[in-house]
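Protein Entry — a single chain follows
Next Lines — sequence and tokenised fold
***
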Amino acid sequence: MRYSGILRIGFKLLVNDRGKFTALLIGITFAVFLMMQMTAMFAGILNRAFSTVTNIGAGMWVMDPAVNTATSAIPLPDYLLDAVRSMDGVDYAVPLFIGGAQVKLASGAYQSVTVVGLDDSSLFGRPELLQGNIQDIYADNSFVVVNDAEFAKLENPKIGTSFELNDHRGTIVGIARVAANGLNGVPTLYTTYSRAIEYLPTTRFTISYVLVQPKSAAAVAGIKQQVAKLGYVAFTKDEFNQRISDYYTYKTGIGTNILLMTVISFIVGLSISGQTFYTFILENLEKFGALKAIGAKGRELVYMILFMAFFTAMIGYGLGIGLVTLMISIARYRLPNYAAMITFGNLGLAFGMVLLIAGISSYIGIRKVLKIEPFDIFRG
């Protein structure tokens, strides 16, 4: 390579000063760790916020325009279900009920739960059963409990376990698992739609959402237009997830706080690495001047400094990712409710910020090195 020699010299200058090299790595690693930790927490929160949409798995959701999250449903009139079923492009449509309740456990303790009422005829959106038979949900007082991070709050129920819900007796007939855990920290019970609206107090309207399966992807736009004429909105699964994401990002303090902490982490990393790299350049000015004296061009010195900065940044990035991955893995093992998760978006954001840190740090060093004159070095 054309610049292999000068890059090799830069590499030796960098790693031979172990103190400065270690300080650079620590600064960048710490910055990456903080940035990844903050954004991973936010990604985990959003993933939990999507849990209802993910677990039900409907192609389209019809709802009131004021709904922001899946758990804050606004009841829909019964005629809307019939209207949607008669629309062009709709393969089938079913009602869904989502509500909160307090259950009295066998020990006498009370526990908040989320009750999901599935369409009686199809049970569309039912979870995958680990134990029990889904047909048992049609028996009197029958519920299916989700075995997730909140399962223990119901005192680890088994098939046949009874509880009390609004003066009604409930019996566990199945234990299920779902793709994503909920955000609100409460256990989830599934039952039939008719039983849910019977056991839980409701307004005169009882449908939380109308779940729609379009006949084809081309029919989605037409269904949206027909629903809009009735004064309601229809979202695809991805659009509903995006609506939930926007709500938590822009309309709550979560997004702002996470963004603020991420920016602070970036500034901390930039401060540590920039100052350390500038000190490293100052301590090696004589060596850079000597390289200029023996014929090294300014462009070659720029490549050397860029290589040193980005080499350090990439190692720090790898160490930071490894550290946050280890911490999240340990935390998930010890704390089932821990919501942080690493996504490609988190990795890309941290990578971009690390490159920015390396670029600013190298720019500080480049300005100093390009001003060096060999005469000044040898005169000293």
In short: The chain is about 55% helix and 20% strand. The longest helix spans residues 298-334. The first strand starts at residue 60 and ends at 63. Residues 149 and 335 are 9 Å apart (CA to CA).
